[in-house]
């Protein structure tokens, strides 16, 4: 049986398949560059695992306090080496990316301090952590003030506004690498480095923290390579490689990471406690696979942009743009088209492919939200998924794919559903 015949059995027409093949032809050079980055990052991870002499004995489970957990401690040194950082905290006790970021912020900010976002409003969940939206236990309740410098209309950094927003109380600058669900562009690692240099030129002792969610392994360098004091992210995104079922990481200068460990467990205990509960094989193997998994997700994002741009749908970033995260948005223009797109992503999933996503209410959103995901790890967004609020311009945010070939099929099936409903002209 030919491949397209196999795909036909899965609901994909020959016409959509051919359209995909045509879009792919122009992407060969991009894909080669992505593979070279993945090879580079794979070498970084391998080298760190070898340097730290990881052995089969380091996968052993610990329970209770977790004192002297060598497997856990070595994993943290592997992360620190890959991120070119002095120290790392990598724990299943960090429940998600927001928790990792909240830990890093609250550990390094004290009453009277100010925190500055020089890249506009931070990710939704961080707004409650900081207290931009009133929330119990927010930093605002503890007397930490927030300032913000918005990006320029074109998406560039407004250095004059950043300088004006920095005061003698500015203790920490929080820089979000990925656009998240905002309309602004994602920052490259080089741009982050420039921004950090600028902030430190204004106030040399300011702590620069980067929300690195969705950005890990997209480039050869990480924010900690270009001066970030802390880089923070989630293990159910890129660095977990799809295998980590929970967790978060904080990498950076030892003094700041130590404080994060004291905040996460307790003052005086810090990094010494925290049993691994048998999760280390997934953390190690996921990190080992992460460069390749991220490359697959990146190819999927670029393929989606190329395919949908070719059909006249605005895509952000554009197919030809350089990338620094794995998020792709496609403006579909109508609720019906969003539903069709998400049904296609769902139909391609290895798990729950038979489910039909429908819009629903979500806490924190003023419009209904639709989500498609058929994932091995609930909520994992390094696995193929699509979501978006049902409101103009009716954009779906698309990300992940543990393998490029799965991402490709998901994108093709999304177009199939649009074509079947008469919402896209092939
Ligand atoms: C995912 C994400 C977070 C954290 O979200 P969690 O769902 O708590 O893991 C924070 N910032 C950005 C930019 C993200 O993409």
Describe the SSE topology:
Elements: H1 3-9, H2 14-25, H3 28-51, H4 70-82, E1 87-91, H5 97-108, E2 114-117, H6 124-130, E3 145-148, H7 159-165, E4 170-176, H8 189-202, E5 207-211, E6 230-234, E7 248-252, H9 254-264, H10 280-309, E8 315-316, E9 328-331, H11 335-347, E10 369-373, E11 385-389, E12 395-399, H12 404-420
Parallel strand pairs: 2-3, 2-4, 4-5, 5-6
Antiparallel strand pairs: 1-7, 6-7, 8-9, 9-12, 10-11, 11-12
This protein binds pyridoxal-5'-phosphate.
Description:
Helix content is 39%, strand content 13%. The chain is an alpha/beta fold and 426 residues long. The chain folds into 2 domains: 3-42 and 288-420, Methioning gamme-lyase, C-terminal domain (Aspartate Aminotransferase, domain 1), CATH 3.90.1150.60; 61-282, Aspartate Aminotransferase, domain 2 (3-Layer(aba) Sandwich), CATH 3.40.640.10. The strands form 2 sheets. Strands 1-7-6-5-4-2-3 form a 7-stranded mixed β-sheet, with helices on both faces. It has a 5-stranded antiparallel β-sheet with strand order 8-9-12-11-10, with helices on one face. Helix 3 (28-51) packs across helix 4, helix 3 runs antiparallel to helix 10 and helix 11 (335-347) crosses helix 12. The protein starts with a helix and ends in a 6-residue tail after the last helix. The mean pLDDT is 97. It binds pyridoxal-5'-phosphate. Pyridoxal-5'-phosphate (PLP) is lined by residues 96-98, 123, 125, 176, 178, 180, 211, 213-214, 234.
């Amino acid at each position: 049986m030919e491949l397209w015949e196999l795909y036909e059995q899965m609901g994909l027409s020959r016409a959509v398949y051919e359209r995909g093949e045509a879009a792919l032809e122009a992407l060969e050079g991009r894909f080669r560059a992505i593979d070279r980055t993945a090879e580079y990052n794979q070498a970084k991870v391998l080298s760190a695992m070898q340097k730290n002499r990881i052995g089969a004995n380091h996968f052993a489970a610990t329970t209770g306090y977790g004192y002297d957990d060598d497997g856990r401690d070595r994993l943290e040194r592997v992360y620190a080496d890959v991120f070119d950082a002095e120290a790392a905290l990598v724990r299943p006790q960090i429940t998600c990316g927001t928790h990792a970021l909240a830990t890093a912020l609250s550990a390094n900010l004290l009453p009277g301090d100010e925190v500055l976002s020089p890249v506009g409003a931070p990710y939704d969940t961080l707004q409650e952590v900081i207290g931009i939206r009133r929330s119990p236990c927010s930093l605002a309740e503890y007397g930490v003030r927030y300032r913000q410098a918005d990006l320029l209309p074109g998406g560039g950094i407004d250095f004059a506004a950043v300088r004006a927003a920095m005061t003698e109380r500015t203790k920490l600058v929080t820089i979000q690498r990925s656009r998240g669900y905002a309309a602004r562009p994602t920052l490259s690692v080089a741009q982050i480095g420039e921004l950090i240099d600028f902030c430190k030129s204004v106030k040399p002792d300011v702590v620069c923290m980067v929300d690195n969610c969705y950005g890990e392994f997209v480039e050869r360098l990480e924010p900690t390579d270009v001066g970030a004091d802390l880089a923070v992210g989630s293990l159910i995104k890129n660095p977990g490689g799809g295998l980590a079922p929970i967790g978060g990481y904080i990498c950076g200068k030892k003094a700041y990471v130590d404080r994060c460990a004291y905040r996460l467990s307790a003052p005086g205990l810090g990094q010494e406690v925290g049993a691994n509960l048998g999760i280390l094989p997934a953390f190690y193997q996921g990190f080992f696979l992460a460069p390749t998994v991220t490359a697959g997700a990146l190819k999927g994002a670029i393929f989606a942009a190329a395919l949908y741009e070719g059909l006249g749908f605005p895509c952000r970033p554009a197919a030809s743009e350089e990338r620094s995260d794995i998020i792709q948005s496609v403006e579909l223009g109508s609720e019906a088209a969003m539903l069709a797109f998400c049904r296609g992503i769902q139909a391609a999933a290895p798990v729950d492919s038979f489910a039909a996503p429908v819009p629903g209410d979500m806490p924190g959103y003023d419009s209904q939200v639709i989500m498609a995901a058929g994932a091995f790890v609930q909520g994992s967004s390094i696995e193929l998924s699509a979501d978006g609020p049902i409101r103009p311009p009716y954009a779906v945010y698309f990300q992940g794919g543990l393998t490029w070939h799965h991402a490709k099929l998901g994108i093709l099936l999304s177009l199939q559903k649009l074509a079947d409903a008469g919402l896209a002209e092939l």
